[in-house]
Amino acid sequence: MSRAGGPLLFSERARRLPATTPFVGPEAIERQSGLPCRARLGANESVFGPSPRAVAAMAEAAAASWAYGDPEQFALKAALARHLGIEASHITVGEGIDGLFGLLVHLATAPGDAVLTSHGAYPTFNYHVAAYGAVLHTVPYRGDRQDLDALLDRARALRPKLLYFANPDNPTGSWHEEADIRRLIDGVPEETILVLDEAYGDLAPPTSLPPVDLLRPNLLRFRTFSKAYGMAGVRVGYAIGQPEAVRQFDKVRNHFGVSRIAQAGAVAALADQDYLRDTVRRITAARDRLGVIARSAGLVPLPSATNFVAIDCGRDGAFAKAVLEGVLRRGVFIRKPAVAPLDRLIRVTVGRDEDLALFAEALEGALGEAGGA
Amino acid sequence: MSRAGGPLLFSERARRLPATTPFVGPEAIERQSGLPCRARLGANESVFGPSPRAVAAMAEAAAASWAYGDPEQFALKAALARHLGIEASHITVGEGIDGLFGLLVHLATAPGDAVLTSHGAYPTFNYHVAAYGAVLHTVPYRGDRQDLDALLDRARALRPKLLYFANPDNPTGSWHEEADIRRLIDGVPEETILVLDEAYGDLAPPTSLPPVDLLRPNLLRFRTFSKAYGMAGVRVGYAIGQPEAVRQFDKVRNHFGVSRIAQAGAVAALADQDYLRDTVRRITAARDRLGVIARSAGLVPLPSATNFVAIDCGRDGAFAKAVLEGVLRRGVFIRKPAVAPLDRLIRVTVGRDEDLALFAEALEGALGEAGGA
């Protein structure tokens, strides 16, 4: 059982997985560069923060955290069901959408099974696909949007186990209208689970989301408290689907994984819809301001239905990378897509006026250095 | 691709997994029975709670939780490394030991691979083994302890991918001395990863734990903030091993899964060792008191190096089940092992004086009804 280098510990698949992962946080950039992060605009967090009521509920729950959280998340599911107008049996809760994606790939694929997404779409979904040995197929973006019709055509030929689609989309910020999403839902092969990522759904135009009770046996819709609710660091996401699909997660999830604090915070956040509406207004205003900053610098902001703006730097990926690095060197944390043709974009999360002012200044400096604008 | 009942969604293995899971929390018991839980002594939590410094740190982190936690958990790993006298590269952090067990089974097994444990040992480990299609083999307990020599003999014949051993043990509370654990570590086949669960290690006699820097390529030691640190609801566990083994977890983990609040709380808890020592003293005193209660009721408490006591009800599993149910009906949440010969035990977590008084009263009533003592 041995060979050079010692015995074969871990599975063959695990040994073949890459040791590096694409998750470089601002803390790591700070540690590597030695520069403090002056504005954190790279992870699509909401600097406007959680509702004060959620913060208070979490502080209270911290003191009670000698006890495990409810593994059935009864109160949170009941609150979500009331808020959304569906049944608790339509909901499963996990440690963020990322955690739920890992469970879903575990549940839905065997090694070698096909999974379909767009080339340049959410990398963490792809990361879990690789971890389970499923095979990722991709369709290119078209006009900086996911190409819905090409995805459907490919799905009909490929019959993948999972088809990933984000509405609104990350990293472009684009969105599709409800009629298109219905066409997607109705057109997906019946043996393919449509993974509809609605992480930014709270920020989307109402015309873009099908009613929440539009469900199918092969449809799971993913939502989160990380974006509009401003609770990225708390780790609560959920999936909505028909009970038979939702129940599958109970077979493999970390039952106590959603912390007592997270459950209490999410319940309190849901109860404060005034705060959510106010945050959405602030995000929308900051998004407009980001567009103005981009245009003032001679760049083109893409339309966005999210809490970030993808800015077209107007040349190739190498130029956008130079701009990105110039902005980072000035202590402003932003990101950019890695693959063409999206790699000519930089992606900037909205922030407070002071954050955006720092970005505007950094962008000007970076463009000057990179020889642009 | 279809058959009666619709298309085949989810994998064949997932469809075969049981829909019910063994995680019934006190909240669910309350909801099902309609009785309020007067004393929560069934989940081996620490009612003495987290350090006040940890609570303060978590409350502060709650307000900052618009931002994702550091995916590399740099500060927490550095604090753990300093505290333990090892390197940060020896540590991986996860959403409790349960979460790390899921990742480990994912990393270390392929469907059909053998995994070895004791019959009646930690069910959540077994749950993850089943979820990944590995095959669980077991060795019986002997004298209410894991049978170390029988496990070693079986491992040499079976060459399993994983061998689970808890020190101290749950559900019996028993422990092994350091020399035995060294024998286990040295005797495990080199292609078997020894999963040494030290969740209760902070409560164990110093003579029972090998030095923390005793590491092997095929050894992973699991520890947690859920037990002595009183932070079960927060979800922080970690594994200690050689860097090559520890690094594997980065290939499959939910990188942002350990919340910002959890990381801040764990760092603060580590810094308050006075509080930990005081908690361990309170747990030890309460454990002695639980022993007195058991003996006063005519039952036999097993020796324990944990924050719970397994009490031998002296007859068969049916009798112990009647005792358990009588105690539960009186609003005192405790648990019992499900499989023989451990099923004649009830398992009671230590508590404050008032919790233990409620248990003593409930036990007396339950024994009276069950016709015992």
Automatic annotation (TrEMBL), chains A, B:
<dbReference type="Pfam" id="PF00155">
    <property type="entry name" value="Aminotran_1_2"/>
</dbReference>
<dbReference type="InterPro" id="IPR004839">
    <property type="entry name" value="Aminotransferase_I/II_large"/>
</dbReference>
<dbReference type="InterPro" id="IPR001917">
    <property type="entry name" value="Aminotrans_II_pyridoxalP_BS"/>
</dbReference>
<protein>
    <submittedName>
        <fullName>Histidinol-phosphate aminotransferase</fullName>
    </submittedName>
</protein>
<keyword id="KW-0663">Pyridoxal phosphate</keyword>
<keyword id="KW-0808">Transferase</keyword>
<dbReference type="GO" id="GO:0008483">
    <property type="term" value="F:transaminase activity"/>
</dbReference>
<keyword id="KW-0032">Aminotransferase</keyword>
<dbReference type="InterPro" id="IPR050106">
    <property type="entry name" value="HistidinolP_aminotransfase"/>
</dbReference>
<comment type="pathway">
    <text>Amino-acid biosynthesis.</text>
</comment>
<dbReference type="InterPro" id="IPR015421">
    <property type="entry name" value="PyrdxlP-dep_Trfase_major"/>
</dbReference>
<comment type="similarity">
    <text>Belongs to the class-II pyridoxal-phosphate-dependent aminotransferase family. Histidinol-phosphate aminotransferase subfamily.</text>
</comment>
<dbReference type="InterPro" id="IPR015422">
    <property type="entry name" value="PyrdxlP-dep_Trfase_small"/>
</dbReference>
<feature type="domain" description="Aminotransferase class I/classII large">
    <location>
        <begin position="41"/>
        <end position="363"/>
    </location>
</feature>
<dbReference type="InterPro" id="IPR015424">
    <property type="entry name" value="PyrdxlP-dep_Trfase"/>
</dbReference>
<dbReference type="GO" id="GO:0030170">
    <property type="term" value="F:pyridoxal phosphate binding"/>
</dbReference>
